[in-house]
Design a protein that fits this description.
The protein is an alpha/beta fold and 278 residues long. The chain has helices at 3-16, 22-34, 38-43, 51-65, 70-74, 98-106, 124-132, 145-158, 197-202, 205-208, 216-228, 244-249, and strands spanning 76-79, 82-85, 114-118, 137-142, 162-166, 177-182, 229-238, 255-262, 268-275. The strands form 2 sheets. Strands 5-4-3-6-7-9-8 form a 7-stranded mixed beta sheet, sandwiched between helices. Strands 1-2 form a two-stranded antiparallel sheet. A hairpin with a 5-residue loop joins strand 8 (255-262) and strand 9 (268-275). S-adenosylmethionine is lined by residues 91, 93, 97, 118-122, 124-125, 141-144, 147, 167-169, 183-185, 206-207.
């Protein structure tokens, strides 16, 4: 079978199984099989696939039709203009999380700024900040050792100077920081049935679910940040839909509440608070 036909048939099968963006998915899967970029497929659309290549495409189609996220199959996801390696050990970086990066950059941090990323996953936030703020001192941690491994690989591959640490939120962390950032696990375990099948069945539950109620992770972030942030320093947290007001209510005296950033769909996403100047 030649590339053009393989793509048509793959896209039809994906569509039949209600996989979104069927044509694009077919192209990305085939490009991955052939270890080429998508553009190659158009320039060589009459090239024949070997039996081995065709078999590989069949396997990937099977996985995708059975709900494995495309990003885990091809092993990467773009975040803030760079590709990050992803595996089922880490959450797939989401576009809305880029607003945390933007919000930090808007504060114009300079060399020497100390930044801590809590629950780094693939390392997308920490690595991006380390690359966007030359000379920043970026630290990042996670409770999941397999996630930390992926984050370290991403930092090395992208040449980002990030110091990684194993952590249970901020419990055993010491030092002083100008920024603490986090996209914590904030889904209530009771809401598991509301998640898309792909997320529920394939993304790591430690990255999705708050251990107790969904406010617990923010209470823990606040308690640690009170100890670790210097005066005037910022804590930036991603929140789930409809959680922004309740998260802000946790922050009392000693904190200044800044406007929450909305994502591209207008959903309040990045809650920002600052340690008050005494
Ligand atoms: C929603 S994911 C965010 C990953 C990444 N920062 C991103 O935005 O794509 C939450 C991360 O927090 C980590 N995590 C869960 N519980 C934790 C804890 N008690 N202490 C530190 N990290 C934790 C998970 O392993 C996961 O990597």
């Amino acid at each position: 079978m030649i590339i053009r036909e393989a793509l048509r048939s793959a896209a039809e099968r994906l569509e039949l199984h209600y996989v979104s963006n069927s044509r694009l998915t077919a192209e990305l899967l085939l490009a991955h099989c052939l270890s080429v970029e998508r553009e190659y497929l158009y320039a060589h659309d009459d090239r024949a696939l070997s039996d081995e290549e065709y078999q590989k495409l069949e396997e990937l189609l099977y996985d995708r039709i059975n709900g494995v996220p495309l990003q885990y199959i091809v092993g990467r996801q773009e975040f803030y203009g760079r590709y990050f390696r992803v595996s089922p050990a880490v959450l797939i970086p989401r576009p809305e999380t880029e607003h945390i990066v933007e919000a930090v950059l808007e504060k114009r941090p300079g060399p020497g700024t100390r930044i801590l990323d809590v629950g780094t996953g693939s390392g997308c936030i920490a690595v991006t900040l380390a690359l966007e703020i030359p000379g920043a001192r970026v630290f990042a941690g996670d409770i999941s050792e397999p996630a930390l491994q992926v984050a370290q690989e991403n930092a090395a591959a992208l040449g980002a100077p990030v110091a990684f640490v194993s952590m249970d939120f901020l419990d055993a962390i010491s030092g002083e920081f100008e920024f603490i950032v986090s996209n914590p696990p904030y889904v209530r375990p009771g809401d598991i049935h509301r998640l898309q099948r792909e997320v529920r069945e394939h993304e790591p539950h430690v990255a999705l679910f708050s251990p107790k109620d969904e406010m617990e992770v923010y209470r823990r972030l606040m308690a640690g940040a009170e100890r670790l942030l210097i005066e005037g320093a910022h804590l930036l947290m991603e929140v789930g839909i409809g959680m922004d007001e309740r998260v802000l209510e946790l922050f009392g005296a000693g904190w200044e509440k800044l406007p929450t950033k909305t994502d591209l769909q207008g959903i309040p996403r990045t809650v920002i608070v600052r340690r008050k100047l005494l």
